[in-house]
Amino acid sequence: MHNISSREKLTYTGSLLGQNMIYSFVTMYIMFFFTDLLRIPPESVTVIMVAASLWDAVNDVLMGMIADRTRTRIGKFRPYLLTGPVFIALATIFCFVSFGGSLGGTIAVAAVCYVLWDITYTVYDVPIWAISSVSSPNPDEKNGMVTLGKIGGTIGTVIISVGSVSLLNAFGGERSAAAYTAAAAVVAVAGAALMILSGFVLKERIEPPPKDIPFSRNIHTILDNGPLIALLVSLLIVDMVNNLRQVSQMYFAVYVWGDSGYVTYIGVSLVLGMITGMAVSPMLIRRFDKKKIFIAACVAGAVSSFLPFPLNAGPVIGLILLGVSFAFTGMTTISSTAMLMDAIDYSEYRLGFRGEGIVFSMNTFLNKLSSTFSKGLLGFAMTVTHYEDNMEPTAAVITGFGAMVYVVPALCFLFAILPLLLYRLKPAQIEEIQRQLTRRRQAKKENP
Which sequence ranges are marked TM in the entry (predicted)? Predict the structure, then answer.
C-alpha cells in the first residue's frame, strides 16, 4: 500500500536541500570567518565549538523529548517545521556579522550567535528527520523518504560547495566580512523558504500513543536498544568523514592547492560521488544485508580516502579519489539511515512505543558532536602547525591540512566498523518484527 504522494516526496527533498544549504554554509565558513575575518584566535574558536557541543547534549535530547510529547491537530512534528526556519535564517545571518569592538567582546558575541544558531537549527532538524519514520507504515516507503532526504541534503551541500565562492566574490570576496554577511543572508532566506514548505505539505500517518510517554520510560527507547546504541556510536564516527572535509576544505584549497576556487571542484566531486553512492544504495539494500553494505563501503572508503596522501596527489588525482570516497560515504549514509529505521521498529516491537523524537534527536546530536570534534581536530592541527591567518604555507601547514582531508577521514571509515559489529539485527528478524508491528497496528484500528 502506497501512501506518500509525489508532492510530499518533492517537498521533503527540497526541505532537506534548503536545510543543508544553511548547514553547509555555516560548517564550511564559520571557523574561517571567526579566525581570518574576526581574528579570533584558533584556541578560542575551538573553545566556542566545544562549549556549543556540550550544550547540544542537553539541547538535542530536550528537543526530542518535547517533540515526542507534542500533541496538536496537525501532528507531533509539523508545528516545529512551520516555525523553525524563520529563526534559523535570522541566527545564520547573525553568525556572519562583524559587530566590531574589542577582541573579548567579539569572542563573546560570536559565541552567543553560534549557540543561538545551534538551538534554532535543532528545533527544525529533529522533527524533519523524525517525521520520515511516521510518514508511512510501509518500510520501503519510509526508506525511500530517507533516501530522498539524504539526496536533497547532498544537493544542498553541493550547491554551497560549488557556488559559495562565486557568491562571496559577488559581494566582495573571501577577505571581506561584509561579503560573508550578504552571502549568509542569501543562503539563509533561500534555505528557509524551502524548509518551511515541509510544515504545510508533509503528513504523519503513524499515530502516536494517546498518552504521553514519561521521559523515564521514553529514554529506554535508547537504553534498552543495543543495536541502536551500536549504530549511533558508529554514526558518530563515520559522520566525521564529511564533517572533517567540510571544515577543512577552504583552508585546504587555499594553503595546499593554492586557490580558493578549488572549493568549487571539491563540491563537484562531492555531488558526483555522493549522488552515485546514494542512488545505488536502495537497490543494494533490497538484495543484501544493510550492515554488510555499510562495512564494505567503509573499507573501500578508507582506501580511496587515504591514497592521495602518500601519492602527494595534485588537484586532478585528488579530486577523482575524493569523488570515489564520497560515493562510499553516500552508501554508508543511506544504509545506516535504513538501519536506524529498523532499530526504531525494534524499539516499538519490544516496548510498545516508537520514540522517534528522542532517537532522531540523538542522531542529530551525534552528527553535530561529530562536526564539533572535526572543528576541534582542525583547531588542534592549526595550533600545532603554528597556523596564522593569510600566512605563506609552510610544509607543516600543508601536511596538516592534507591529513585533515585525506588521512583522518580514512581512519574514521575504519573505526566506524568496530561498534557496528555489535549491531545484531538480522534481515529475517527485521522482516518478522515488521510483520508483527503491522498486525498490532491493524488490531488497534479494529479494536480501538
Answer: 21-40, 46-67, 79-101, 151-171, 177-202, 222-242, 262-281, 293-311, 317-344, 396-423
Are 333 and 280 in contact by the 8 Å Cβ rule? The answer is: no
Q: CA 326, CA 304: separation in Å to the nearest integer?
A: 9
Helix (H, G, I), strand (E, B) or coil at 432: helix
Residue 446, pLDDT score: 64
Is the CB of residue 136 less than 8 Å from the CB of residue 3?
A: yes
pTM of the model: 0.69
CA separation (Å) from 143 to 10, 149, 214, 238, 269? 15, 10, 28, 20, 25
Q: How far apart are CA 275 and CA 84, in angstroms?
A: 27
Q: Cα(65)–Cα(405) distance, rounded to whole angstroms? A: 36
Q: Is 375 left (phi over 0), alpha (psi -120 to 50) or beta?
A: alpha
Give the Cα separation of 58 and 227 in Å (integer). 23
Chain position carrying cell 523553525: 84
d(CA 246, CA 182): 21
Q: What's the CA gap between 194 and 196, in Å, rounded? A: 6
Query: Which residue, among 133, 168, 159, 200, has the nearest Cα to 22 in the 3D structure?
Result: 159
What mean pLDDT do residues 150-165 have?
Answer: 85
User: Do 351 and 228 contact (CB within 8 A), yes or no?
Assistant: no
pLDDT in tens, 260-304: 788 888 888 887 898 899 889 888 988 899 999 999 999 999 999
**In the chain, what is the straight-line distance between the N-terminal and C-terminal CA atoms, in Å?**
22
395: Cβ contacts below 8 Å, ≥ 6 apart? none
DSSP label at 33?
I
